[in-house]
Amino acid sequence: MRLLLGLLVLWASSSHAEVCVTDDLSRQVCLPKAAERIIVLSPGIAEQTFAAGAGSKLVAAVSFSDYPEAAKKLPRIGGYNRFDLEAIVALKPDLLIAWSEGNPAEQLAQLDALGLNIYYSEPFEFDDIASTIVRIGALAGTGEHALAVANHFLSGIQDLRARFEDAPPVQVFQQIWKNPLMTVNDQHLIAKVTRLCGGQNIFGDLNQLSPRIDLEAVISANPEAIVAGGMGEDSPEWLDDWRRFDGITAVQRNNLFFIPPSTLQRPTPRLLEGATLLCDYLETARERR
User: Fold this and answer.
1) Domains 2-155 and 167-287 are alike in CATH topology
2) What is the mean pLDDT of residues 268-279?
C-alpha cells in the first residue's frame, strides 16, 4: 500500500499542469492545476484536508468542523446535511470535497450541474483513510506532506495489528448514540478498529451499518466491555447509565470505557489515537478476568 501511495504522489507531483485522481465513487476528478480554494462538506473531511497539508487552502467548511484549532475559524456554509448553495457559489471554489453518504444528494447534484469540481470521499478501510489523505494532497499540491502523514498512519495501524493479532478476544458493545441507542455492525470502520484490537463486536452481524438496538439486546448479549463516546470530547456520562445493570459482565468488572468520539468516529489520521486507546482498554479488560 505504501508503494502505491508513493507512486501516486510521485505521479501527481510530476505534473505541473492538470492534476487527476480517482475519488471514492470511482469518478475521475481533474483540475487544470492544484486547487487553491477548497470547501469541505463534513467535519471529518476538514480534518483530512488539514492533515494533507492543505488547510491554508480552505475557504469554508460546515458546522462542527473543529479540528485542528484553525478549522474553527473557517467561514461556515451550513451543516453537512444542508448547506447554503449561494454561499458556496459566491466563494468561487475550485474544489469541493463531499461526504458521499452524509451530504444531501440533491444539493450535490445541483453543485455538480453548476460545473463545480467535486471529489467524493467515503473511506471504509484503514488503507482508504491513508489514500484519501494522499489524493487530497495531490489535488491541493501538497503531496509530499500528505504521503508522510499517510505512511505514519499506516505504520501505526500495522504496529497495533502485530501487537494484538493473537490477543484473546473480548466481547465488545460499541455505543455510538444514546437516544435512540445505536451501535455499529462489522462493516463499520469503528468495528474494524475493534477487530484490530482483538475485540469482537457483539452486534457485528446486523444488516445496517449503524443500527438502532434496544436495551434488552445489550443485556442479553452480556458484553465483557462497553465502549462509548458522548455528546462531547470529555463527556463520558453515557457510561454512567450502564452502572445500574450489574448483571452485565462489563459492569461487574468496571470495563466501561470512554473514547473521545472524534478520535474514533471520524475517518482521519486521529483514528490511530482512538485505536491505540481502544486497544489499551481491551487489554485492561483481559487483565481483569
Assistant:
1) yes
2) 97
**CATH topology (fold) of 2-155:** Rossmann fold (3.40.50)
Q: What are phi and psi of 123, to 5 degrees?
A: -75, 130
* CATH class (in words) of the domain with range 167-287: alpha beta
Q: Is the pLDDT of residue 157 over 60?
A: yes
pLDDT at residue 192 greater than cutoff 50: yes
What are the residue ranges spanned by the domains of the chain?
Answer: 2-155, 167-287
pLDDT of res. 13: 47
Q: The whole model's pTM is what?
A: 0.90
- CA distance linking residue 31 with residue 139, whole number of Å: 7
DSSP string, 31-66: ESS--SSEEESSHHHHHHHHHTT-GGGEEEB-TT--
If phi > 0 it is left, if psi is from -120 to 50 it is alpha, else beta; for residue 178 that is alpha
Q: State the chain's mean pLDDT as an integer.
A: 92
What are the start-end ranges of the E strands in 1-139? 19-22, 28-31, 38-40, 58-60, 78-79, 82-83, 95-99, 118-121
Instruction: Give CA–CA dist 238/93, Å, rounded.
Output: 40
58-88 pLDDT, tens digit per residue, is 999 999 999 999 999 999 999 999 999 999 9
> 21 in helix, strand or coil?
strand
Q: Are 98 and 83 in contact (CB under 8 A)?
A: no
The residue written with cell numbers 494532497 in the block is 137
